[in-house]
Specification:
mainly beta, 4-stranded antiparallel β-sheet, 53% strand
Length: 291
């Protein structure tokens, strides 16, 4: 089966990221980190709704009680979609003013995880944070320059966490009861010039990773072997998630930040949102934050 790639929203995001599928409303939420906003794209009509954010927004997640939880430059916050109100929760990385939050996901227990990064992309100051439903925050020191793609196997025994600057996707033992990552091993290493970004885990425990500067997605078997590459008509592919009524559509975000005029002429849909069909694999329902 040959996957088909279609640009479904030519939004020209500066730094499109963090796609999240809402099965209740059949909408794809995603963010633009550098032109700070949360967007929602209806499916299949592909109409767009936008909420401007007060600071860079790295990641969002659905809340069980409605609305979103977000990881902003200024810390964790709730976002009321009806009013656009942003209510701060905690700023656990305030002692690193050059840092910002980047990617984030919710685990099966309803805890929101998000990593920080040096916004200048030079200092190894990025750590991982867990926001629990009681709104307490736990820091896990990693010291990555750019923390990125997160995910878990279906049995919740393995957690994936991406070190973009190190071109490495890590697999860590995971204690689901306590929400604690453990021993770390390298799951995959990308070639020079290809930087692993966001990822998602399919229902068969295979991994699909977006490649910044790679113009592609890479589909990995559960053991880390490369199954295939899926070309995307944008050089800066940032993240992906499964969605659609049957969770068999892969939605992909991209960026156009820093691209010169020649590159933009070759890839005019950079910063757009793409839909990949015909993958032959499905995703799992999106967990919601229980706080």
């Amino acid at each position: 089966m040959t996957p088909k790639v279609t640009c479904i929203a030519d939004v020209k995001a500066t730094l499109g990221e963090g796609p999240v599928w809402c099965e209740r409303t059949q909408r794809l939420f995603f963010v633009d980190i550098k032109a700070p906003a949360i967007h929602a794209l209806s499916w299949p009509a592909c109409t767009l709704e936008t909420w401007k954010m007060p600071s860079a927004v790295g990641a969002i997640a659905l809340r069980e009680r409605g609305g979103l939880v977000a990881a902003l430059k200024t810390g964790f916050a709730f976002v009321d979609l009806a009013t656009g109100t942003v209510a701060p929760i905690a700023d656990p990385d305030a002692d690193n003013p050059h840092n910002r939050f980047n990617d984030g996901k919710v685990d099966a227990a309803g805890r929101f995880w998000a990593g920080t990064m040096d916004d200048g992309e030079t200092q190894a100051t990025g750590d991982l944070f867990r926001l629990d439903p009681d709104l307490s925050v736990t820091r896990f020191p990693f010291g990555f320059v750019v923390t990125n793609g997160l995910g878990w196997t279906r049995d919740q025994h393995t957690m994936f966490f991406t070190d973009s600057a190190g071109r490495t996707i890590n697999a860590m033992a995971f204690d689901a009861a306590s929400g604690t990552p453990g021993a770390r091993r390298i799951f995959a290493q990308t070639p020079d010039g290809h930087y692993p970004d966001g990822l998602c885990v399919a229902a068969d425990d295979s991994i699909i990773s977006a490649e910044w500067a790679g113009s592609r997605l890479t589909h990995y078997a559960p053991d880390g072997a490369i199954l295939r590459h899926i070309p995307i008509p944008a050089p800066l592919v940032t993240s992906c998630c499964f969605g659609g009524p049957d969770l068999d559509i892969l939605f992909v975000t991209s960026a156009r930040i820093g691209l010169d005029a020649e590159t933009l002429a070759r890839f005019p849909q950079s910063g757009g949102v793409f839909a990949v069909t015909g993958l032959g694999v499905r995703g799992l329902a999106t967990p919601r934050f229980k706080g």
